[in-house]
Amino acid sequence: MWEPRPRRRVTKIWERLFLGNLKDAEQLANSNHFRIASVVSLCTEEIRTKADRIEYLHIPIAESRLIPAPKFEEVMAAMANGVQRGNLLMHCLAGMSRSPIMIAAWLHRCGYASIDKALAEISELRDIDPSPVLLRSVKEHLTR
Q1: Beta carbons of 14 and 112 less than 8 angstroms apart
Q2: Which of 92, 132, 91 is nearest to 115 (CA)?
Q3: 3 in any annotated domain
Q4: Which of the listed residues 10, 63, 101, 108 has the most CB atoms within 10 Å of its CB?
């Protein structure tokens, strides 16, 4: 019988790279035990509560839609800069579709793994549900 995994909050995906949801990003103002230095938010909503010593970048991406090439490249650059700065939290509303897809794309760009293998590894760490439309769009950007 299938049993859901216990809900994890922020999940470490790779060295200096963490995955979470909007609530996780907002709670950094109260507790930052992962020592997050940068946050890249893919939500259409703004983060309401921000910590003083964390750099926030808001790059809204619509769920289940194609992502324009300039926005895709903006996210890739923001991730590279954030990881270079310190620990980076990448998040979307639920941490299940947009942010895991973009993390997998970044890991692919870094030569770590194919996007599908990266998503499979992320799914070993937490529940994800990547949008097929967004995933197809990101894969197209990676082959250009």
Answers
A1: yes
A2: 132
A3: no
A4: 101
Q: pLDDT for 94-110, tens place per residue?
A: 999 999 999 999 999 99
| Coil vs helix vs strand at 88 | strand
Q: Which domain holds residue 69?
A: 11-142
Residue 75 near residue 85, CB atoms below 8 Å: no
Q: Per DSSP, which regions of 7-141 are E strands?
A: 11-14, 17-21, 36-41, 55-58, 87-92
Can you give the CATH number for the domain in which 72 is found?
Answer: 3.90.190.10
In a domain, 32, yes or no: yes
Condensed to tens digits (0 to 9), the pLDDT of residues 46-101 reads 999 999 999 999 999 998 899 999 999 999 999 999 999 999 999 999 999 999 99
Six token digits for residue 43: 């939500």
Which residue shows structure tokens 């998503």?
119
Residue type, 81: N
